[in-house]
Structures are given as C-alpha cells and as structure tokens.
Amino acid sequence: MRRKRGNLFVISAPSGAGKTTLCQKLKEIVPDVKFSVSYTTRKPRAGEIDGIHYTFVDEDEFRAMIADGEFVEWAQVHGNFYGTSKRRIENTISEGFDILLDIDVQGARQIREHFSDSILIFILPPSMDELKKRLAGRMSDSPEVIARRLKNAIDEIREYKNYDYVIINDVFDDALEEMVAIIIAERVRTSKIEEAWIKENFIKEE
Amino acid sequence: MRRKRGNLFVISAPSGAGKTTLCQKLKEIVPDVKFSVSYTTRKPRAGEIDGIHYTFVDEDEFRAMIADGEFVEWAQVHGNFYGTSKRRIENTISEGFDILLDIDVQGARQIREHFSDSILIFILPPSMDELKKRLAGRMSDSPEVIARRLKNAIDEIREYKNYDYVIINDVFDDALEEMVAIIIAERVRTSKIEEAWIKENFIKEE
C-alpha cells in the first residue's frame, strides 16, 4: 500500500458562511471521504436516521461514554449532549479512509490537541455585509438572534489563524474546487507515502 | 488584496517519470502559473525562442551574473552553463503570481535554502519496471546510457523525503489532477491570507 493512513479534516465556519451546502456538494464529488457521525442525546427529528445523521443515545449512555474517555470532544447545547468518538475517527483513518468533521472552533481546537496531524479548514463569507445579508435572510430569526449570531461570527473569525487553510466562500464553485483540491493535495503529502513502498519498488534495485 | 504573495513551486523527477508532459498540460489548465525561464550559455536549438525557452547569454555575461550573486542556483552541464535568477523569482512572487521551476534534486535543495517557503513536488514513475520500460523506449539511447540513467534515477528517488509532495505518475490524468490540486490548495493556506484583509473586512466591526 502506498498510503499509510487516511486524513482527518476538520471544517469550521461562522453561521452563514455556507459550510453545510459546501459539505453536501463535497460528499457528491469526493464520495470516498467519510463524514463523521456524532453521538447525541437529542431526540431524532423527522427524517433523521440513526447512524447516518447522528447516533442517538440516552443520557446515561452518553455519561458513561464521557466517563470512559470515549469522546475527543463533547459539548452540551440547549440541554442536549453532542460528542465525537475518538475510536470512530481512529478506525476510519487506520483503514486508510479520509474523514471529515464539521465542528465549531472550540471543538476544532480539542480535535487538534488529540489528533495533531488533523487538517483544519476555515470557511469565511466574502464580507461582513454579505454575512449580514445571509443571516438576515432567514425570516424566522429575531433581530436579537441575528445580532448574537453576528457577534459569535466575529469571535469565531478571530480564531482563523489556528486553521491550516482559509477558504473564502465568495463564488461557490471556486470555494468547492478549493475544498476538493485540499483533500486531493493532502493525500499526496510526502508524509502520507509509505517509506516501505518506495524502498520495495525503487531503492532495493541497487 | 487577499493574497500576500505568489507561491514558488519546484518540480523534480527522475528521467522517465513523465515530468515534461505533466508540466506542459499544467500550463494549459492553470494558465496563471508562470514558468521560470533559465539563463543559459548553450546555443539556441531550432524552434527555441529567447526569453521563452531560455534567456540566451554568452559566457562572459553568465560569469558576471555569478559574480554579482544573481543566481539562486547554477550548474555546468556538458560545458554549458544554466542558472536561475533570484530576482526573476522574487519579482514574480511579489506581483502575486505563482511560479513553477523544473529542476533536479540538487537544484531543488539550493532553491529551498534561499526560498524557505518554496513548495517542493517530486514525481515518481509507478514502478521500477515501468521506468525501465519508459527509458528503454527511447531507441536513440545505448544500453550504457540507459543503465546510467537508471542509476541516476535511483539516486534521485532516495531524496524524495526532502519534498513536500510525492506524485506517482501511474494514471496520467490522476497525476495531473493531483498537481493542479496542490497549486490550488497552496493558494488558500492560512499563511497566504493577508491578516489586514481579514481585520478590515471582519474584525473591525466589533
């Protein structure tokens, strides 16, 4: 085998940067990338499938997993728990598959602490005006909710330097091309090539 | 401007790995990448254009340029001099353009010493057997020439760890896609984004 292990990609973005649509398209274009499935204590919504969108567990199970150190990161949001399993990531990578994790800046930091060779991608909207427009476009949200989201967005953008790549989602197709390019390029990094394969195929000749 | 500077890509490969064809196709696909033009004291061959294939100078001019420290690397091959101008690379990069340099492993090492943020790409044939086949395919070469080239190829392959990326040129279209992906991905590295642009566009808001 030429490749040692798969890559762990972590994607973060402020709300309104277009991350969800980008990730969905990416799934179609690079189907051999796995998407990480989180554990949650939240009840499934209509159309959500256990093991696809989330792995649904009850609070006792979740707390037991915390106690066993099974999560590389977990958080409580609006009373529900969400967590990422270390073992799931490790298994996917060691099988040689890339895995993609969609997570906020705090979660990304925890992932990087545990998986030091993870590759962090940050997605930015083209401008603050455009971000405001995109956030305001959701009619269901109150001005207070929009203002809080904007404040959060700025706080998250401050963290961009912790990321390896920054994609500006101005023209969608360009942003998508950049995301695909990162995944393909990271596969041919020298550190991903099995030294044994090189020796076996070339250097033993002499 | 979002991008600070262009990138310097350095491409090396043992003879027979298919580097020349890859670079030619790359020129068509990513036309905004500039290709470095070397200085040489060799006489132009039929069809070679001054300033396009090489910049042709006489030996006195070349030696004066060496004395002035104008070359980031230079070498003498079969009695002719070849050299890469520091200033040309620096000018291209500072204008925001990527530049690509096709050079052997020794030259690549010198480039990296001077341009520490250069990005080094090594191209491998799929296997030693395939390399032998490709080298033997040139009817004009004697067995001794082929044997020496093979020996050189192995010596060059030993150096692959000094490179950032290793592309295995098995399926040509895949190798080309990987090369294009590296160029696109390296453009969105966090270090290439102007911090001032981020501050101006987002963080000042608060």
TrEMBL record, chains A, B:
<dbReference type="InterPro" id="IPR008144">
    <property type="entry name" value="Guanylate_kin-like_dom"/>
</dbReference>
<dbReference type="Pfam" id="PF00625">
    <property type="entry name" value="Guanylate_kin"/>
</dbReference>
<keyword id="KW-0067">ATP-binding</keyword>
<keyword id="KW-0547">Nucleotide-binding</keyword>
<comment type="function">
    <text>Essential for recycling GMP and indirectly, cGMP.</text>
</comment>
<feature type="binding site">
    <location>
        <begin position="13"/>
        <end position="20"/>
    </location>
    <ligand>
        <name>ATP</name>
    </ligand>
</feature>
<feature type="domain" description="Guanylate kinase-like">
    <location>
        <begin position="6"/>
        <end position="184"/>
    </location>
</feature>
<dbReference type="GO" id="GO:0004385">
    <property type="term" value="F:GMP kinase activity"/>
</dbReference>
<keyword id="KW-0963">Cytoplasm</keyword>
<keyword id="KW-0808">Transferase</keyword>
<dbReference type="InterPro" id="IPR008145">
    <property type="entry name" value="GK/Ca_channel_bsu"/>
</dbReference>
<dbReference type="InterPro" id="IPR020590">
    <property type="entry name" value="Guanylate_kinase_CS"/>
</dbReference>
<dbReference type="GO" id="GO:0005524">
    <property type="term" value="F:ATP binding"/>
</dbReference>
<comment type="similarity">
    <text>Belongs to the guanylate kinase family.</text>
</comment>
<dbReference type="InterPro" id="IPR017665">
    <property type="entry name" value="Guanylate_kinase"/>
</dbReference>
<dbReference type="InterPro" id="IPR027417">
    <property type="entry name" value="P-loop_NTPase"/>
</dbReference>
<dbReference type="GO" id="GO:0005829">
    <property type="term" value="C:cytosol"/>
</dbReference>
<keyword id="KW-0418">Kinase</keyword>
<protein>
    <recommendedName>
        <fullName>Guanylate kinase</fullName>
        <ecNumber>2.7.4.8</ecNumber>
    </recommendedName>
</protein>
